[in-house]
Amino acid sequence: MDFTKLIKKEIVKISAKDYAPETCPFCSSDEIIIRTSYKRSIPELGNIDTRRIIELHVATFKCEKCECKYTPQHTDYPKKYEYSRRIIQTALSLHFKKNFSGNKIAAHLAEYFSVQIPPKTIYSWINALTEEFMKSEFEAEPEKALEAYKALTIDGTGFSLGNQLLGKKNDVQLSSAVKLSNGIYLLTWWE
Description:
The chain has helices at residues 16-19, 85-98, 102-113, 119-137, 145-148, 162-166, and strands at residues 8-14, 32-47, 50-63, 69-70, 152-153, 174-179, 185-189. Helix 2 crosses helix 3 and helix 2 (85-98) crosses helix 4 (119-137). It is of the alpha+beta class.
């Protein structure tokens, strides 16, 4: 029996017309044309034997009635990010819910989802997107976010790092501190 791991590549094409509004967002006219366009190749969550790539057609539209130009954005493939929203969300979930380090997240995504991401990129997401991620995860009860993610505020308002981290005999190094909008710092540790 041959256990050689064969990874197949799957390309999913998404046309701009699949996610763009059918009418002008400024005047509601249906007289719109594509002014310019290009294609983005974006890694997406695959599986153990499939590497999935999204080929996203990005277009700038022009309304022939009001002459306004606009470029619709696909919600799953943010403009400023090289990876899909699902990959970023999965990485942040692994970090906060499972206490995975950036290196461990990168290895996990490569092994189970066939996505190659440098750990440095994952750490940048943790630093830049922590507050936004926590708000989205706990929209209904935002006060539970810090407790659920085993976080500790600098002013010691009662959140803990959980028994696992507090019970360790070895020192745990501080890896990042993120200032939340309310002036509280969120400290994140990993091994």
